[in-house]
Write a structure and sequence with these properties.
Layout (H helix, E strand, L loop, with lengths): L13 H14 L3 E5 H9 L9 E6 L8 H9 L6 E4 L2 H11 L6 E3 L11 H6 L3 H5 L7 E5 L8 H14 L4 E5 L5 H11 L5 E5 L4 H4 L5 E4 L8 H8 L4 E4 L2 H6 L7 E3 L4 H13 L1 H18 L2 H16 L4
Parallel strand pairs: 1-2, 2-3, 3-4, 5-6, 5-8, 6-7, 8-9, 9-10
Helix pairs in contact: 7-8, 7-12
């Protein structure tokens, strides 16, 4: 399949409109699929797509971060497409209620989650997280994987761990990923007295092999779409703790497939983590049930099939 690079230079590059329009009109595609704000705006701009092409735009997050001008563009273009796909019910509700997208034009297709590595080669090549960090093999690890950014509310997690490590002897907090808050989080951990037990791995291409080594996974975010890292932890059978925002509640049934806690409440995070790290039966039950849910409802095969069915329906709509 040919790949064309448009060489977009900045946020709204007029030449990109021209190049994209020329390319689409030359190829006359049955369906044009775009992802996220910039691409979604380009393809919906009048005249860019051929009149016979069906436009499918995809949104992946409850975009409360968007500025006023971005929301105005979204609202102006809100119904200049045939379908908007959302990866969770919470994302669909945001674009219905805040942006004003016609409910009939929204289709929810959840992210597909790959199963954890299971082959002998992958298992043998997986790095041993505790050895790498200089920790004893029986260290209780509370972990996070993702971007170290304000949205993730990681100060709440660090403060929760400050309380937790006094109750669960020898425990460690491992933050996999990088982002603008890394230095600030390290300084905060130092200020509350737990820096020696908080470990930053930086960006890791092997994050999927590290997550299964956590004893518990925590995602305290203030907003999400459908968190891949949360779903990956559940797929690996790692018991999870997450803020009770709509996107996380879409994935987790509280006390059955994970523990939901009020957003911003470090004490609640600490208590939930302590329950998991000190109750093997609870940890095993939460992890197994979460794994079953991901395998049955969020497979890559289901995601691919849903997209193929959507494209076939769009391509054949006027035939």
């Amino acid at each position: 399949m040919p790949v064309h690079i448009l060489e977009k230079r900045f946020r709204f590059d007029p030449l990109t409109f021209v190049r994209l329009r020329r390319l689409l009109h030359q190829n006359q595609p049955d369906v044009v699929q775009s992802f996220l704000f910039s691409a979604n705006s380009y393809v919906r701009f009048p005249g860019v797509c051929p009149s016979g092409s069906k436009i499918v735009v995809a949104e992946r997050c409850v975009d409360s971060w968007k500025s006023g001008w971005q929301l105005r563009i979204d609202r102006w273009l809100s119904n200049r497409m045939d379908v908007m796909t959302a990866n969770s019910e919470s994302v669909a509700e945001f674009y219905r209620s805040v942006v004003g997208v016609d409910e009939q034009k929204i289709s929810v297709i959840s992210n597909g989650v790959l199963p954890p590595s299971t082959t002998a080669t992958e298992t043998a090549n997986a790095p041993d997280l505790r050895t790498e960090l200089g920790l004893p093999p029986d260290t209780p690890v509370l972990g996070f994987a993702g971007r170290l950014a304000p949205q993730k509310c990681l100060n709440d997690l660090v403060w929760a761990f400050h309380l937790l490590h006094q109750a669960v002897e020898g425990s460690a907090l491992v933050l996999v990923g990088d982002g603008p808050q890394r230095d600030q989080l390290a300084e905060f951990a130092e200020s509350v007295g737990c820096r020696s037990r908080v470990f930053f791995t930086g960006h890791r291409s092997d994050a999927a092999q590290l997550i299964p080594q956590f004893n518990a996974f925590c995602l305290p975010s203030s907003f999400e779409g459908m968190s891949n890292s949360l779903a990956e932890a559940m797929a690996a059978g790692v018991p999870v703790i997450a803020s009770d925002i709509p996107a996380n509640a879409d994935l987790i049934t509280n006390e059955e497939t994970g523990l939901l806690v009020p957003c911003g409440e470090s004490v609640a995070i600490c208590k939930a983590a302590q329950r998991i790290l000190t109750d093997n039966n609870l940890a095993k039950s939460l992890g197994e049930k979460a794994q079953q849910v991901i395998q049955s409802k969020y497979s890559v095969e289901q995601m691919v099939t849903s997209h193929i069915e959507l494209y076939e329906r769009m391509a054949g709509a006027d035939r």
